[in-house]
Amino acid sequence: MDDAVGKLVSMLREAGQLDNTYLFFSSNNGFFSGKHNVPPLGSSAARRVGQCR
């Protein structure tokens, strides 16, 4: 993702549109109940280890 964002920023800069652009980032994999890497027991995410880095 870092490479893709870098390319996007470069393209916007070259086009002179970087100062006129907002970039928003979102993810559906985040913290659960304010705890890092601790999904609720019994959830489908319980099988995933270290999903937030």
TrEMBL record:
Which Pfam families does this UniProt record tie to the protein? Sulfatase
Organism of derivation: Streptomyces albus subsp. albus
Lineage of origin: Bacteria, Bacillati, Actinomycetota, Actinomycetes, Kitasatosporales
Q: Which InterPro entries match?
A: Alkaline_phosphatase_core_sf, Sulfatase_N
Output one GO MF annotation. Answer: glycosaminoglycan binding
Specify the Sulfatase N-terminal domain's residue ranges.
1-39
Write down what this protein is called.
Sulfatase N-terminal domain-containing protein
